[in-house]
Amino acid sequence: MKKLILTIVATWMIAAILNAQENKTAYEISLEETEVVGTRAPLPADKAVRLVQVINRQDIEASSASSVNDLLKLAAGVDVRQRGGFGIQTDIGVNGGTEDQLTILLNGVNISNPHTGHLAADFPVNVDDIERIEVIEGGASRVYGSQAFAGAINIVTRTEKESSVGAHLQGGSYGTFGVNAHVSLKGNHFNNRISGGYARSDGGTYNDDFNKGNAYWNGKYESQLFDATFHAGLSTMNYGANTFYGTGSDSQYEQDRRYLIAAQAEYKGKIHVPMQVYWNRSLDHYVWWRANPEAYQNFHQTNVYGVNLNAYTTWALGKTAIGVEFRRENILSTRLGKEIPEAEQHKYKVPGWDEYYKYKDGRSNVGLYLEHDILFDHLTLSLGILANHNTSVDGGMKLYPGIDLSWRPADRWKFYTSFNQSLRTPTYTDLYYNGPGLTGNSQLKPEKSTDWHIGASYTGIFFKVQVKGFYRKGTDMIDWVKYQDATSYTTANSDIDNIGAEAFMFFDFARLWGERSIPQRLTLSYCYNYKYRVNTEQKANYASRMTFLRHKFVASFYHRIVSKLTAQWDFTLKNREGEFDNAKTKEHQSYGTYSTLDLKIQWTEPHYSLYVQANNLTSHRYYDFANIEQPGVWLMAGIKCRLAF
Known about the structure:
The structure is a single chain. This protein is mainly beta. It has seven helices and 37 strands.
């Protein structure tokens, strides 16, 4: 009997593998046709020189994510620190980096905020608008500019293949309600998608309520030789900020507005010429005491203008790309910048308020890019350099080189290694903030880093495995520190190194056992980080940059239940370094180890789907930030519908 069972199992496994083998050719062709980010000149995915993690539409549909920030929790190398639900008050870091050391792009347009990285994750799009998210880990200044210090995240929105309308309605715990909708119009050469949404909640903890709205338009024109894309978006958020900037007040409050306009075009001749021009404005109103805002409040306005021109061509020795980028960052503020003469302050009125900005500053950044990619059957070598000058930094143009190598000894194997240097100029908050318990430092130097990465990947018929190691040598890293006997935190430069490793495994059981199998997909990923201060003579009893994820493990399992009913389980285990004084218990405690379990159960039909979901199913209480306890279980239910015409 035992031999018979083993024979049946072996025969079944062989048949399943042969069945998956039949789909191999189409899969490999689609892989070769896909272009990925990571270089100035696009490369096919099978010849890519960097490990880029992609959260695709399939992952997005299955997950219980209610915001872009929730989606990023699925990547082990990404640290998502929350102060509230639905992506409100979220900081995002990559591979031990901070929210200020990351470039965020929307369809390739840089939307990072020079005011502070705390506001970088304010997006004008909904989860339903997103086609995929590309996570580039490690220094990438020679590709994405000076601020891509620890990595970059590119959010790519959906382009419909047919005209359609759709809507999404959801509601649940803590008075939470959300709705969004879209209209897509497709013609012979034109494709337009307009979307908008609104969400509100009473919040899962004290002073954690919010309401937010957004709208986004993406218009495309495509022809044989010329493509053009236009973007326009806005977002608005109002939220209780609890103890955002300190424990002296648990009734802090914030209002944020963002406006974005961008145009992109590409000439597709022998020499491809992509170009883009963009403007985005952010308005921020921060209040220390919500019931008495005039006692202490700040107003900030940033305006960012950018032009990016690139050109690349393929010739006998590979692909060569050259580019130039100009970016202007201006700020008006009641707190940040250089003082405006009192006689001129009347020129700078705060929109919608009987207040005037008292400070301003501005800086221009110019980047010159050169890259050459050498492509062989089994080898890709990418050599690049950024020549960069920022008007706020002395010394003129500075060079930041990089080299990426990918070796493919066999069809399914890839080995990677890279060396890149990057920089980051301080945010305006780093330089100038002066408030309760916080003091900026206008003499800060730019951060500089040297990154080394090494990794390997294997792609099987129904599974994929990736491993990598990284080391970042950081010079003049910017940190908020509190020295012995000091009464406030201040920003300072210090040398901090970061070493780590990451592993990723994906199993496609549907490819192995067929679309009707119970298990469908399983993803396992893990990231380890260790940061240490090199110049130990800088004694501080607190350092915010040393509060980081030491360990992060993510497991996502998607399976059928019956018929069209499916479930997705997302388990995350985190161990965060750092300690804080608990304002409630009056005890000194560490962040320690904590886990969350999310579940989404969904019934899917061709034109609609129904779902229920639970975030933090075990109702575990934990801290991402000092003294901001995260809510327990958060239940939601919703319906999505889409009609093509």
